[in-house]
Amino acid sequence: MRIWSLHPKYLDTKGLIALWRETLLAKHVLEGKTKGYTHHPQLERFKKQQHPLDYINKYLMGVYDEAISRGFDFDRNKIGTILPTEKIPLNKGQLEYEKNHLLNKLKLRDQNKYHLLTLLPEIEIHPLFVLQEGNIENWEIIR
After folding, report:
1. What pLDDT does residue 26 have?
2. Rounded to whole angstroms, what are the CA distances from 71 to 14, 26, 44, 130?
3. Which of 28, 47, 134, 140 has the greatest CB tally within 10 Å of its CB?
């Protein structure tokens, strides 16, 4: 499971669809609807929030918006109510780690997206997050 911190516009089609499915799975975990993945590190930043489901719904909305802009037919009803939330801090080191992780995937799957991403001096983050100084997040599994 990978819940990307970077903006979903950088993902290729395969990555965007996977993100949608994996984040819906994460939502099910937070709702207590599944026994698997309950201790998955990617969920830590959501679990730390007072109302984790509000945050995962807001995250899903960002993925949904990107999918709709590309002409996908994702089911909005799977998200639920979107309530106001504070932004979750994201360390710059985490963003850089994820950018490199995505570049490795895109190099194999989508050369056009790979080259576009290599040309960008800065990349946007998912709208749920706010960038701050810092290293790779403690919850990240480094490979």
Report:
1. 94
2. 14, 24, 31, 27
3. 140
Among candidates 74, 89, 77, 81, which has minimal Cα distance to 56?
Answer: 81
User: Vertex 92, ends 10 and 27: CA angle to 5°?
Assistant: 60
Plot region of 37 (φ>0 → left; ψ -120 to 50 → alpha; else → beta): left
Length of the chain as a residue count: 143
6 secondary structure, DSSP code = B
Cross-strand pairs, 91: 132
CA triple 75-68-126, angle to 5 deg = 100
pLDDT of residue 34: 86
Domain range summary for the chain, segments of one domain joined by +: 8-132
Integer Cα distance of 12 and 67 in angstroms = 11
Structure tokens at 49: 């929030």
Sign of the CA dihedral with 141 first, then 83, 77, and 62 last: negative
User: Which residue's structure tokens are 């992780």?
Assistant: 101
- Residue 51 token pair: 């109302």
Q: Is the pLDDT of residue 36 over 90?
A: no
